[in-house]
Amino acid sequence: MLKRIGLSKLYCLLFLILFKLYNVDANIAPYKNAVLLLGKNSLIFCAADDGGFEMRSYLNNICQTPNLDKLAKESLLFNNAYSSVSSCSPSRSSLLTGLPSHQNGMYGLHHGIHHFNSFKTVQSLPRILKRNNIRTGKKHVGPNSVYPFDFSQTEENNSILQVGRNITKIKLLVREFLSQNKTKPFFLYIAFHDPHRCGHTHPEYGNFCEKFGNGDIGMGTIPDWYPIYYQWEQVKVPYFVQNTEAARRDIAAQYTTISRLDQGVGLVLKELDDAGFKDNTLVIYTSDNGIPFPNGRTNLYEPGLAEPMMIRSPISNHRKNTVTHSLTSLLDIVPTLLDWFNIPYMDRFSFDANEVPPLTGKSLLPLLVQEPTENDTAVFASQTHHEVTMYYPMRAIRTKRFKLIHNINYKMPFPIDQDFYVSPTFQDILNRTKNKQHLPWYKTLESYYERPEWELYDLKYDPEEKNNIASKSSARKIFSDLQQRLLKWQEVTNDPWLCAPRGVLIETKSMICSPSSPPLLVPLIFHSSKVQTSRLKFEKRTRASCVGHLETSYVFFVSQVSVVLLMVIVNLLHLYQKNEAQQQTTKQHEQIRILKAA
Ligand SMILES: *[C@@H]1O[C@H](CO)[C@@H](O)[C@H](O)[C@H]1NC(C)=O
Ligand SMILES: *[C@@H]1O[C@H](CO)[C@@H](O)[C@H](O)[C@H]1NC(C)=O
Ligand SMILES: *[C@@H]1O[C@H](CO)[C@@H](O)[C@H](O)[C@H]1NC(C)=O
Ligand SMILES: *[C@@H]1O[C@H](CO)[C@@H](O)[C@H](O)[C@H]1NC(C)=O
Ligand SMILES: *[C@@H]1O[C@H](CO)[C@@H](O)[C@H](O)[C@H]1NC(C)=O
């Protein structure tokens, strides 16, 4: 059954995308910046899939990552890098477009039958590079017209394990690529699949595919890989994961694949050196979203958004073996690459400048020279779906000190994704909760599912985001400042969810909300009972193949008419007995709407 579910919902499948710059054609006058390309500025970009901070450079001295640590020494190491979304395809689409997922259209995972796609008019790195006479390849993000790569080795026509986890195979593909057209500048994008979970698709290889290619019977061999195994007693359990044997064993398996990823990075960098490109190649290493553990991937909490990142530049005055604390977003990658290649984001031939949304990110090249003076900078995040059923829109702003999260559909329980659901870590949380066993975790399952509309954390005193101060009167000013900035960003980035959950976007061009459209109570009752009928039928039909993770809360409620009414009453209470902060919030919403209407 796992296998069936897994194959129908394969995701996070971007592996190896190679593309090369053509010689600059003298006839393409507007691209005169491409002279720099002729200067063979080259770039390698490695992204780990669900990778985290499990390396010595980020103070984890159990997980062995000598190659990443060496790269970190030669790089500027980022201590405050954040993804703009905590889900694979959306994150990679925003990496390649510089636009948050709600703006580029990749609301959820690209793969599987529900494939989300970016909007047709969106500018992407491959598209821009192609306009500048670049030959490209594509994968994992779509549609093809938006991401027109033309040379690719990806999971679409290769085995996911071969192009994503077989580091020997990856090495050989990179070697093949680098041996071609040695006089042309290139952009090489390598997205490892390690350390993504694998228990839902290839359980025979272990929860993280940590046994794939380890030389045991039936596992095959990856000639370049020296597997490193970890004792579950020794792993470093992050504060956001429960400290139990089941979770520790899960982490130990994850470490093994991080060490494989690390060795893969070493092989790729060696290929680069051997081919003579080290001295003219910018190397960026980062990941797409947080690790697949509770509060990590699919969450906008720190473990879901914070990313490892390092940039190794061949330019002599660029900083190396240094740490930056500057707030950085993965939305900054596109501006950085365009800056590196000296290519404009828009040009006057291909697109109407009015149609192309401006980038909100910034080039990181200046940061490579000098640490900027901090100026109340902020990074933003926007999450809508992961899997198609996991509709849980959230928007967040994070400054150096504070984080504000808006859980737009906060009355729904937080959804759990499939590969995390079947993982030993989550099963352990479920089992212990159901059996009322001790759960050494900083949350309860219920508090994980049930989130308030607004969450505000003072990260200086509360880096683990345990103490929501959104309703504290002492935090009122910072709350409203952050809220205004968040709404402003949503407006600038054309967020269709700008007015949600209480308003309606009535004018999309100028982003105007309807001043008032609270949920109508009578239709709500009607709606609930209808939903209930269809749900009961659905449950009967599919009982055998569905697994529920909401044992503790809603399932019982919706199957009882009387309790449906009770929920309506609870809704009423919610509407009329809001705490101070929520009233404040509504007022501010109203003010903003009025301002806009005016
Ligand atoms: C996959 O497709 C690309 C073209 O889209 C091609 O260059 C590559 O050789 C193919 N790989 C395999 C293993 O068929
Ligand atoms: C290399 O250059 C040749 C000649 O310009 C071209 O035909 C070929 O397609 C190029 N190969 C790649 C991989 O760019
Ligand atoms: C990994 O790739 C190499 C080279 O293609 C191959 O020889 C080896 O069998 C592969 N390993 C596995 C486990 O598939
Ligand atoms: C701080 O940021 C604001 C707006 O982002 C900008 O107008 C101002 O010039 C910046 N100040 C400094 C000192 O960089
Ligand atoms: C959870 O409980 C189920 C059913 O009792 C059991 O099969 C499974 O091994 C348990 N998993 C963990 C991680 O505790």
UniProtKB/TrEMBL annotation:
Residues 442-490 form the N-sulphoglucosamine sulphohydrolase C-terminal domain. The keyword Membrane applies. One of its GO terms (biological process) is glycosaminoglycan catabolic process. InterPro entries: Alkaline_phosphatase_core_sf, SGSH_C, Sulfatase_CS, Sulfatase_N. The chain crosses the membrane at residues 554-576. Keywords: Glycoprotein, Hydrolase, Membrane, Signal, Transmembrane, Transmembrane helix. Residues 1-26 form the signal peptide. Residues 44-343 form the Sulfatase N-terminal domain. Its cofactor is Ca(2+). GO terms for molecular function: N-sulfoglucosamine sulfohydrolase activity. Belongs to the sulfatase family. This is Sulfatase N-terminal domain-containing protein.
